[in-house]
Specification:
The protein has a six-stranded parallel sheet with strand order 5-4-1-13-14-15. Strands 7-6-8-9-12 form a five-stranded parallel sheet. It has 13 helices and 19 strands. 34% of the residues lie in helices and 21% in strands. The chain is α/β, with parallel strands linked by helices and 349 residues long.
Length: 349
């Protein structure tokens, strides 16, 4: 792995975002792309996503779509992406349903019944592993698995609670508390997992990002050698990259706000930060230590006396990168505790 690509994967400091002299699409062989909040929001493609991914693919980068959303099958996701103008096959899509189905298959006998609280994506993934989906806690399941499905109702959640109360091993595709939609931020699978936990107690085994089973599933299916995780969430995409020892790009098109980024603890700090997927197509600027502060582009940031100070002009993202370096360095192994509103106001963020 080259000096430019090594980044977080070999333990370089998380005190600042990294630079890269090449376009990221040239420095990495595979983009492991989150979907919701990165490529699309609900049924709408995010601005610049299609053009940027097309250019990255045409330049030789392999595109793999890695989603914690277990509701749909890989083919359904591929069809949606193809409809946006991104020709995609089911083999290009890796879901948390596939990861949790593998996890379950390693712990129960072949052919076991599994109570499914989720969508068709979970059912297809379980059948691929030789398991039999069932709908009731009275069907003798060897496991219960819970995944996102916008049509879930009280009765389905109650079936999960009944099974968990009886001691049936409990699995969850993922525990994202929220999911981006066209109209705003909606409850995710993690919120529904909490409903079952409140009723039944205990905690499920979780397969999706940021847990290792999802990273293992992705590597097995893509064969990536120099992957770059691309996501919008610190607690799933970026932490998943940290857990897997690979580099990451945070795009600001989904749920993460600049203030949350500045307060990120080490496992939530991305290698690179950009506005959207156009960041794949360009080099990333260096953030340089400058005495007691940090400079990037025309900006200089410093953390002093419990405050972040920012001065300069130029590309607004460079100012954010400089602020990240100042806040992360000051926080060390923790989270930056101070108010960042004044510094971000200078960037209009």
């Amino acid at each position: 792995m080259s000096e430019q690509v090594r980044g977080r994967a070999e333990g370089s400091g998380r005190g600042r975002p990294d630079g890269c002299r090449q376009a990221l699409s040239a420095a990495y062989d595979t983009a492991l792309l989150d979907l919701d909040g990165v490529v699309y929001a609900g049924g709408r493609a995010i601005g610049h996503a299609v053009a940027s991914l097309t250019a990255a693919r045409d330049g030789g980068m392999h595109l793999a779509y890695v989603t914690n959303n277990a509701a749909r099958t890989p083919q359904a996701v591929a069809d949606q992406l193809s409809g946006f103008g991104l020709p995609t096959t089911a083999e290009d899509v890796i879901t948390s349903a596939q990861a949790v189905a593998r996890l379950i298959s390693e712990q129960v006998p072949a052919g076991s019944r599994v109570l499914v609280i989720g969508g068709e994506g979970l059912r297809v993934a379980l059948r691929e592993r030789g398991l039999t989906p069932v709908d009731s806690a009275d069907d003798g399941p060897a496991a219960v698995v819970q995944g996102y499905d916008p049509s879930l109702d009280w009765e389905r959640l109650a079936e999960a609670a009944y099974a968990v109360q009886r001691g049936v091993p409990w699995f969850a595709s993922n525990t994202d508390l929220t999911i981006p939609k066209e109209r705003g931020i909606a409850p995710g699978n993690g919120a529904l997992v909490e409903v079952v936990r409140i009723a039944a107690g205990g905690a499920p085994q979780v397969a999706g990002k940021p847990q290792p089973p999802m990273h293992r599933e992705t590597v097995l299916r893509t064969g990536a050698r120099r992957p770059l995780v691309v996501g919008d969430r610190l607690d799933t995409d970026i932490e998943g990259a940290w857990n897997g020892g690979v580099d990451s790009l945070l795009v600001l098109t989904g749920v993460t706000t600049p203030a949350e980024l500045l307060a990120a603890p080490p496992e939530h700090r991305p290698t690179y930060v950009d506005a959207d997927l156009r960041g794949l197509l360009r080099p990333q600027p260096e953030v340089a230590a400058d005495g007691t502060g940090f400079g990037c582009g025309g900006w200089r940031a410093e953390a002093a006396d419990g405050q972040l100070a920012l001065a300069g002009a130029g590309e607004l993202l460079d100012g954010l990168r400089a602020l990240c370096a100042a806040a992360w360095t000051a926080a060390g192994e923790g989270s930056y505790p101070a108010d960042t509103a004044n510094a971000l106001a200078l960037l209009g963020m």
